[in-house]
Inverse folding.
């Protein structure tokens, strides 16, 4: 350890190679960068969060769900060393040594499948393809497929029918129709695939340069993109010029995806964009390097190879996962990278500044990710085991808004729409059954649904509530945790909430009311909602509430718990 | 709690609600002087989602394709209207300027709806940061809010975000409290409506929450911004729900429901009327009527479906709204607009007896807030294919941007303002003089007035 500290300032690279063997997946790699910068900026560090705060946070972040009261009791009582690391291990399912079925029920996999399905916009437009695509992502995560391999699979997938074959839905999802809404526009579709793959896997947004050069448009927005030309974007899109998405068996949205077209055609009319310059060179070339396909290499395979082997691929990936776990990216947002502002040794001209809050950390995490087989689980464990992840919500003495990108304090967020309504069900001890569309399956949590339409068709009021809480619609609305007035109204007064919080058959309240001990009831409700025991004042208040009408008081207590700010935020 | 502390906390709440994220007024500036008309206290915007058929409604045309029972006749104002489709509205023509020279920029629903709601062209880089018209109004009215105002400035009713029409446009880069309050009248149980039998318990629970939520009590200016904002939202919401007048605002009696056409669109129009009448801070009320996208069977079957469904719903609600606003002496200070995101293809019907999307002609109807009634503005050819007469001083079509400038003007908002501190770094102009790359120099449709 000591040697490492000495090696660190000289160069990041040897440290990283070394870190693979020495640090395994612990958070020390992260904390030395975070704490060095905090110290340089004289930013105070928040205290490490209590066991309860950590337990609730890490369970929500890794599995999307609240910890069960029983788990919470055990964890809070535990005194063994490294209990946090050990607990994290219990959240992540083992690799399927006994076949997939052995780990089919894994909230961790549900939650991250949901995450990628949001990113890939796996929704309504794909109809039955939703399920094949979902299964593909789910299986890939159960197997902990290396992320680069997973992405290569999506980009190169072909299929006779996306309703039978999952991964090709990824490419098919980017189809663009003509203005008439019936015919596919081939070049617009190729552009869209390039935009989506570059955004998701390199963290760079090409929408602007898909219509016009960056010059005279993006000088104040993104230095690197201001130097890009529409022609370069088209050469990136040209990797998909042969890729033909067509309605399978004559009916969309069942698609076939095949590489049977002649190539990108500059003469077709765009249904979305200004006309393309017909004299452009459209030889496929990778946007970040200008690299072309090898002789005999298929264009999509060439693109997938260049994409996943470029350092920015790993940087974008670790930043994306970091942002999801830490509440904001090292580059924030994760799809707004400015590639001309990444290298502290080669700073951009004033007034531009280096974009990442911790550029060396981002590189170190990316190197570690590449050196360890693009292992998402390893990356997640590393992040959640860091002190940076485990810092308290409460501000340290001397806190200032200027410190908000230093990760010296937890970036507090509202529960996502899915987390929140699953948390309400779990706290109330309910076991809902949401029907999976185009399937006989039923699932018991929002996080297990395949797309928002599962809820829409099973429980329309809940669907509307999820929308009000910023559920991603996998089309035009991105997931959002912003508070609104409607959300506050729903939690205070919507029938949807009220009817979930009454004493009912097989619910938590009914079970707890069977015991005469009010203290047990109060403990269990606090553990279910907040993963902790009540303090003396909270207990006294709750006891007073239960004094007259016990059942009614218990309902009120449950209502107050799910309306608490520390229930809604984590 | 000591009084001093209390005040500090209230100030913090105010800061969380109104001064969010360093969005100080210096970020907004005016580039030139325009003189807002300030002739209205509120705007009711009827969003006819899907693209209503101009040649069957306010720009009615004769053709072999049309059924006889549209009953097209000359009105006393010297222009034709379909008595079969809009009989009740026709009784209120003396309040209306019917614009027949309106034109859209888009023929895709989601892009057209974006245009209609924001008054701006779709730019992928800017979708997230561009506020909608209602949010700009909310922002502008912040400092004019009175302590007794319990309704939010921007209310949207019955807009269902869908894949086809896109999301409801909200506050963009403006503070969170400029977001629309959304009501869905098809949903029977509105979260803002407290039934009398539930009121005591809600109050009890609210007090319990204030008393025992230690995370609420611990809020200070170092607390996470989201928590502070949520807390201030829940206070305003509770204040609104607990205001005895709120139940009245949300109440639609059986008689009113019937008068307004017994539809969720009609119910929303009653509530819009109530909100205007309550004079409680609601400034921009958007009421959406879906279902105007008649690609097939536009005339339905057996006088049912298609326009036979939408027109009577619209007609009853629109006429009742205009009648009530006038009767309640509110029309002089309320601008009412009805329009869709685009028009429909002219001439004969498609093989499936419908009409496709069309941008070159469409209608927009204006009433109240000083709009001179009883007339049409502009004209189109025999099939609604082209505008033949613009009918106003700009000598060009009336665009969404012009309607937008008109809304700002009647509400006393300087529409030449711009927001200079946006996430993309590019200014957001309340009304952009250019639609995409085409510079039009949009302006208030001043010819509507006087």
């Amino acid at each position: 350890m000591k040697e490492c500290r000495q090696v660190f300032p000289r160069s990041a690279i040897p440290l990283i190679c070394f870190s693979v063997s020495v640090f395994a997946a612990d958070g020390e790699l992260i904390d030395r960068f975070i704490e060095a910068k905090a110290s340089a900026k004289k930013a105070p560090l928040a205290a490490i969060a209590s066991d309860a705060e950590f337990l609730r946070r890490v369970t929500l972040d890794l599995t999307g769900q609240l910890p069960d009261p029983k788990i919470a009791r055990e964890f809070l009582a535990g005194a063994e060393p490294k209990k946090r690391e050990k607990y994290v291990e219990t959240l992540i399912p083992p690799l399927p040594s006994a076949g997939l079925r052995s780990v089919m029920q894994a909230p961790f996999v549900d939650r991250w499948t949901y995450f990628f399905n949001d990113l890939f916009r796996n929704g309504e437009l794909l109809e039955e393809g939703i399920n094949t695509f979902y299964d593909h992502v789910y299986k890939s995560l159960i197997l902990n497929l290396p992320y680069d391999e997973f992405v290569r699979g999506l980009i190169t997938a072909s299929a006779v029918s996306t309703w039978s074959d999952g991964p090709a839905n990824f490419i098919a999802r980017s189809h663009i129709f003509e203005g008439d809404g019936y015919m596919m526009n081939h070049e617009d579709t190729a552009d869209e695939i390039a935009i989506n793959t570059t955004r998701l896997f390199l963290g760079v947004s090409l929408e602007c340069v898909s219509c016009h050069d960056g010059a005279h448009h993006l000088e104040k927005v993104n230095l690197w993109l201001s130097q890009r030309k529409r022609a370069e974007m088209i050469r990136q899109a040209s990797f998909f010029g042969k890729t033909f998405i067509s309605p399978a068996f004559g009916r969309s949205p069942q698609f076939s995806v095949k590489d049977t077209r002649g190539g990108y055609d500059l003469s077709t009319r765009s249904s979305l964009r200004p006309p393309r310059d017909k004299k452009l060179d459209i030889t496929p070339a990778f946007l970040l390097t200008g690299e072309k396909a090898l002789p005999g290499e298929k264009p999509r395979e060439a693109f997938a190879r260049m994409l996943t082997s470029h350092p920015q691929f790993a940087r974008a990936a670790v930043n994306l996962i970091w942002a999801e776990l830490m509440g904001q990216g090292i580059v924030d947002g994760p799809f707004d990278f400015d590639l001309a502002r990444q290298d502290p040794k080669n700073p951009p001209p004033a007034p531009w500044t280096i974009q990442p809050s911790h550029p060396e950390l981002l590189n170190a995490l990316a190197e570690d990710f590449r050196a360890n087989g693009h292992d998402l689980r390893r990356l997640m464990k590393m992040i959640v085991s860091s002190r940076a992840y485990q810092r308290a919500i409460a501000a340290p003495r001397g806190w200032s808004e200027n410190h908000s990108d230093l990760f010296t304090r937890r970036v507090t967020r509202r529960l996502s729409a899915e987390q929140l309504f699953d948390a309400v069900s779990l706290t109330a001890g309910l076991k809902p059954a949401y029907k999976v569309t185009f399937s006989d399956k039923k699932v018991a949590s929002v996080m297990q649904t395949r797309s928002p339409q599962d809820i829409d068709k099973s429980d329309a009021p809940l669907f509307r509530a999820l929308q009000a809480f910023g559920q991603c619609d996998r089309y035009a609305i991105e997931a959002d945790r912003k508070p609104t007035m409607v959300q506050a109204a729903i939690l205070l007064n919507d029938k949807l909430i009220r009817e979930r919080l009454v004493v009912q058959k097989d619910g938590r309240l009914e079970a707890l009311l069977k015991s005469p001990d009010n203290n047990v009831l109060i403990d269990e409700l606090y553990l279910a909602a907040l993963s902790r025991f009540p303090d003396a004042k909270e207990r006294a208040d709750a006891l007073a509430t239960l004094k007259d009408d016990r059942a009614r008081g218990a309902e009120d207590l449950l209502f107050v718990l799910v309306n608490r700010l520390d229930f809604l935020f984590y | 709690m000591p009084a001093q502390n209390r005040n500090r906390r209230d100030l913090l709440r105010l800061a969380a609600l109104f001064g969010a994220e360093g969005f100080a007024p210096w970020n907004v500036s005016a580039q030139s002087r325009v003189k807002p008309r300030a002739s209205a206290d509120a705007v009711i915007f009827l969003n006819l989602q899907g693209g209503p058929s101009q040649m069957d409604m306010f720009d009615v045309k004769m053709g072999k394709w049309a059924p006889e029972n549209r009953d097209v006749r000359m009105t006393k104002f010297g222009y034709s209207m379909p008595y079969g489709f809009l009989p009740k509205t026709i009784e209120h023509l003396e309040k209306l300027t019917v614009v027949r020279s309106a034109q859209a920029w888009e023929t895709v629903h989601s892009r057209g709806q974006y245009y209609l709601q924001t008054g701006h062209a779709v730019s992928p880089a800017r979708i997230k940061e561009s506020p909608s018209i209602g949010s700009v109004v909310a922002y502008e009215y912040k400092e004019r809010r009175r302590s007794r105002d319990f309704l939010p400035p921007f209310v949207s009713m019955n807009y269902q975000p869908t894949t086809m029409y896109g999301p409801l446009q909200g506050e963009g880069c403006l503070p969170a409290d400029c977001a629309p309050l959304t009501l869905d009248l098809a949903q029977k149980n509105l979260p803002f409506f407290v039934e009398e039998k539930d009121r005591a318990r809600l109050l009890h629970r609210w007090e319990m929450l204030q008393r025992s939520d230690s995370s609420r009590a611990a809020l200070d200016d170092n607390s996470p911004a989201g928590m502070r904002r949520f807390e201030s939202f829940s206070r305003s919401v509770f204040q609104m729900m607990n205001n005895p007048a709120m139940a009245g605002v949300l109440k639609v009696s059986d008689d009113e429901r019937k008068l307004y056409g017994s539809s969720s669109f009609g119910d929303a129009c009653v509530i819009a009327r109530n909100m205007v009448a309550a004079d409680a801070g609601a400034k921009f009320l958007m009421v959406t009527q879906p279902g105007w996208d008649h690609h097939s069977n536009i005339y339905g079957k057996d006088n049912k479906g298609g326009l036979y469904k939408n027109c009577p719903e619209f007609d009853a609600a629109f006429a009742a709204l205009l009648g009530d606003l006038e009767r309640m002496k509110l029309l002089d200070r309320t601008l009412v607009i009805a329009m869709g995101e685009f028009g429909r293809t002219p001439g004969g019907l498609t093989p499936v007896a419908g009409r496709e999307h069309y941008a070159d002609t469409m209608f927009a109807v204006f009433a109240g807030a000083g709009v001179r009634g009883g007339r049409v503005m502009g004209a189109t050819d025999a099939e609604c294919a082209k505008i033949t007469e613009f009918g106003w001083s700009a000598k060009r079509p009336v665009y969404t941007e012009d309607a937008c400038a008109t809304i700002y003007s009647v509400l006393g908002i300087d529409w030449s303002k711009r927001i200079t501190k946006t996430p993309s770094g590019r200014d957001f102009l309340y009304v952009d003089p250019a639609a995409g790359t085409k510079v039009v120099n949009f302006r208030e449709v001043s010819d509507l007035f006087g």
